């Protein structure tokens, strides 16, 4: 029974991905992308990786879909142009080579089975009981710090390109009751995901994405106009995460002599503080990626 | 008791899935945006509610009802709102032409 479901799911992923690539309508293509993302999230649940599934659903399908729709609105309507066969063949060849290389790498790599045993052996020292959070915020916290830095670089690129701010349009009378229920729910859910990330799937990235989703409802519904002042505050909050993480790294270096090795017994409180600020910061970054940076007036 | 719950769960889930299939059929076969929306928004809220109720019966635990109920409320809410927004956008596009 579950095998039938898995096969159906696999076909669904490939089919929606093909539909997203095959259509000439940009919005339909983005809809296909979002549905593919949701199906991929579902398959990650089937593979026993609920943390990744949550992140894929919230960031991969949800917020990336919103960002793509926003860019589609900015671009001119797509020309319906059929690329010459030689182009298609080359693209197909590259894609096949890439998938082949990935499949080969996955099937021949021996190392992955090593980690669960290593992590569960030292889990008690990490301050949390969810192995994923233990890896992300303790054993390999250094990688997470760099990930936040990557998000920060994306933010700088948006600042340089300076896209136009989206113009909110009147969305009708159902928007207010919708926002009244959904926005508090998003805030509540983000807090819940952040807190439960210590013991079960959840964490800063998922919570931040949901918080950003709630803020986008406020913004697109016209309830929170992104004034330059508000955007500057958003920028400050967005920078706060990286700054606090970097300060935490330096202070652990001073306290324990090793970068991001938390003092004995205090790991939980360090992780919680860093994750709480990261949640706010990630939410602010994702919002700013959507609505653009504050601009200085031209001199 | 458990067999009754199990049977009830399977029946409810089957009804829910058929509602979703009818919604899909409606989106596929109906001629214009508004009638497609009509088919989609109603049938999918009802279908999901039935499936959630069936799933709650199948697990046989009361606390899953809360989570599933939250899912149903959120999906119904966003379905209604998005249906309204799409219909609105469609009508205002019609005015422009």
Overview of this structure, please?
The complex is a heterodimer of chains A (about 300) and B (about 100). Chain A is mainly α and about 300 residues long. Helix content of chain A is about 75%, strand content about 0%. Chain A has 2 domains: about 1-80; about 110-299, no CATH class. Chain A is globular and about 60 Å long. With about 100 residues, chain B is mainly α. Chain B has one domain (about 1-95). Chain B contains 3 helices and no strands. The longest helix of chain B is centred in the C-terminal third of the chain and has 34 residues, at about 65-95. Chains A and B meet through helix 8 of A and helix 3 of B.
As residue ranges, the low-confidence spans of chain A are: none
- Into which percent range does the helicity of residues of chain B fall? over 70%
* Biggest protein-protein contact in the assembly: A-B, 8 and 8 residues
What is the N-to-C succession of helices and strands of chain B?
Answer: HHH
Roughly what fraction of the amino acids of chain A lie in strands? under 5%
Number of strands of chain A: 0
Counting structural domains of chain B, the number is 1
**Largest β sheet strand count, sense and barrel closure of chain A:** none
Summed up, what is this model?
The complex is a heterodimer of chains A (299) and B (97). Chain A has 299 residues and is an all-alpha fold.
């Amino acid at each position: 029974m579950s095998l039938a479901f898995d096969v159906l799911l696999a076909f669904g992923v490939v089919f929606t991905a093909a539909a997203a690539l095959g259509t000439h309508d940009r919005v339909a293509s983005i809809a296909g992308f979002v549905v593919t993302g949701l199906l991929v999230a579902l398959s990650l649940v089937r593979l026993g990786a609920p943390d990744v599934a949550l992140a894929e659903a919230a960031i991969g399908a949800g917020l990336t879909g919103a960002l793509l729709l926003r860019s589609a609105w900015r671009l001119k309507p797509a020309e319906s142009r059929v690329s010459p066969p030689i182009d298609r063949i080359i693209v197909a060849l590259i894609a096949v080579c890439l998938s082949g290389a990935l499949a080969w790498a996955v099937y021949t790599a021996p190392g992955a089975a090593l980690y669960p045993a290593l992590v569960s052996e030292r889990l008690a020292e990490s301050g949390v009981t969810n192995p994923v959070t233990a890896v992300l915020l303790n054993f390999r916290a250094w990688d997470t710090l760099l990930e936040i830095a990557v998000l920060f670089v994306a933010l700088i690129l948006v600042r340089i390109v300076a896209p136009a701010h989206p113009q909110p349009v009147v969305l009708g009378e159902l928007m207010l009751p919708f926002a009244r229920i959904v926005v508090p729910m998003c805030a509540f859910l983000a807090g819940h995901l952040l807190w439960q990330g210590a013991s079960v799937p959840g964490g800063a990235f998922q919570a931040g994405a949901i918080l950003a989703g709630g803020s986008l409802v406020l913004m697109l519904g016209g309830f929170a106009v992104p004034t330059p002042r508000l955007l500057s505050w958003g920028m400050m909050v967005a920078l706060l995460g990286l700054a606090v993480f970097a300060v935490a790294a330096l202070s652990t270096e001073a306290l324990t002599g090793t970068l991001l090795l938390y003092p004995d017994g205090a790991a939980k409180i360090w992780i919680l503080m860093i994750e709480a600020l990261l949640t706010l910061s990630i939410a602010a970054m994702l919002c700013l990626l959507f609505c653009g940076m504050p601009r200085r007036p031209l001199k | 008791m458990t067999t009754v719950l199990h049977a009830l769960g399977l029946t409810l889930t089957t009804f829910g899935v058929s509602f979703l299939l009818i919604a899909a059929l409606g989106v596929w076969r109906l001629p214009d945006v508004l009638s497609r929306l009509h088919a989609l928004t109603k049938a999918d809220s009802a279908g999901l509610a039935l499936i959630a109720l069936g799933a709650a019966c199948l697990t046989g635990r009361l606390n899953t009802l809360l989570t599933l109920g939250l899912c149903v409320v959120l999906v119904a809410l966003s379905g209604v709102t998005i249906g309204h927004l799409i219909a609105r956008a469609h009508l205002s596009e019609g005015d422009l032409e």
